[in-house]
Amino acid sequence: GTSFSIQHSHLYGCDRMWDGLYMDDSVSALVIVNTVIEDAQSAVNMTDGARYEITGNLFNKNNVSLFAFYL
Predict the structure, then answer these.
(1) Contact 60/36 with Cβ under 8 angstroms?
(2) For residue 3, how many other CB atoms are within 10 A of its CB?
(3) What span, in angstroms and rounded, lies between the C-alpha atoms of 36 and 31?
(4) Residue 37 CB coordination number (10 Å)
(5) CA 53 to CA 30: how far, in whole Å?
(6) Which residue from 14, 59, 56, 17 is spatially nearest to 36, judged by alpha carbons?
(7) What is the mean predicted confidence (pLDDT) over 43-63?
(8) Residue 71 pLDDT exceeds 80
(9) pTM score
(10) d(CA 57, CA 52)
(11) Residue range 1-49, pLDDT digits in tens
(12) Where are the alpha helices (DSSP H) in the chain?
């Protein structure tokens, strides 16, 4: 599995939209804390039981800010 942590950051597209962050299995963990995420086509995508902690963030100018799909 993969662990990915973003804290006190600013993610944005320079001159166009960017794709987004993807976590796609039950042993993956994503932590996003006090971060600005802008200009994404689909900013945060979680599927198949990925674990996450998303607190104190600002999602701005994204087509989709948060997508979670679990079977």
Answers:
(1) yes
(2) 11
(3) 13
(4) 25
(5) 6
(6) 59
(7) 94
(8) no
(9) 0.89
(10) 13
(11) 778 999 999 999 999 999 999 998 888 899 999 999 999 999 999 988 8
(12) none
